[in-house]
Write the structure tokens for this entry.
Amino acid sequence: MGFPKEFLWGGATAANQYEGGVFEGGAGLSTADVMTNGSHTVRRQVTWKKSDGTIGSTPLCFGSSERHLPEGAVPCIIEGNQYYYPSHIASDFYHHYKEDIRLCAEEGFKCFRLSIKWSRIFPNGDDDKPNEAGLQFYDHVFDECRKYGIEPLVTLSHYETPLSLAIRYNGWNDRHLVQAFVKYASTCFRYYQGKVKYYLTFNEINCIDAAPYVTAGLIHADPQNIANAAFHQFLASSLTVKEAHEHFPELKIGMMLAYGPVYGYTSDPKDQLLAKQAEDATLFYSDVQMLGKYPNYKLEEYRRNGITLPTHQDDLKTIASFPCDFLSYSCYGSHVVTTHMDEDTKAGEGNGAMSRTVANPYLKTNAWGWATDPDCLRIAANTFYNRYHCDQWCVENGIGWNDVLEDNTVHDSYRIDYMKANIKSLKEAAEIDGIPMMGYLYWGCVDMVSNGEGEMAKRYGQIYVDADNHGQGSMKRLCKDSYYWYQKCIQSNGEHLD
Ligand code: BG6
């Protein structure tokens, strides 16, 4: 007994990294649209202007310790060639969606994850009426998916808060965004009724801590702002679930967590305690969204730091009454933490997406330091099932590589090896541990701009896109070796892995 018959195999994308067409169809800007491209060594920057005409840029992305724009700086696009904004063209899904969905269908996808760009539907985030052209664009995309029997999975907010809300309200710091989001979600539910069944509220909600601008549109992010933003997203998520349950009972609304098992580097209990605390810092977000209440350790941490929750009457009751219908997660590998920072451990400092991590001597990493852990999905599945006993779905897993094009294809055996090991681990969770699972989605199935680095060179896709770090290229799509491997894997419902 392997994966269930109805297992949802497929791939995942996000508008700000993939869609492009930023100035088309009456769309408004999102926080991602004022972020420049970065590289292996240079962080992405948010560009800004002040009223005296001064311009500049500040890294507010993953891995950056900066948390604020300078006083009076307003994020905006700086015209001219000085900066390049990768989200504006990205992989041009806006004009290639028919071709991409056809290729995914031929690969065997049962599910295609995409995000709706909120500011394509409500250009300022809180307009009175939705933008019809924006609604229609995704409607065409969903029709195309349905044509091939592909189930869309829609993320309502994937690192793309409407820029206007970020500027006017300091993003999710303000309660105003709660109602604006619920109205946006409800507009989508109504418009796409019968075409979309599965929604996720916030992508990797726990990344508010590591990347508050990216995750919650915070232009100024002190610990109180971060707590406010998390609270408002929890509340918005619960009210979205409530809206769905009351008016669209056929829908399933999920939460989405960035997860990677955290190991202690040594058997020193201090390292094990640190690992547990690091996991708890992540699981706090799923505790609230799946169990409906703040865990004690988090409330104590807030109390110690003088942080208060911006609750109004009945808010906590709403959060308790409307947890999400299922849990979804990204899982790319694992992390290691230690209290023993010496020459050995320092060598691996900064590995992967998590701070305070060190290299794992047992695991291989890619060029960006992300450790491939062949057991991570089984550990993830057990962690979630044992804690929440809920339906779960791995909606992101994959490996970034500086692919080389040869004979009009990419011989990406490294990607096949990665997928083989990871899917095997998930299969063990289903087969040996008896954990029910909804599906597996490979991240970045079609090449797209990386989120952390803002570069195209960090490719995840099984489908190659001819575009470089500056948006130059024909945008031609080419199938890599991994495309054919995944096709066989899906055809056999995960039985054919070798
Ligand atoms: C997840 C995000 O964190 O990881 C995606 O949900 C992102 O948006 C993916 O692209 C891979 O990260 P990166 O930085 O390599 O693009």
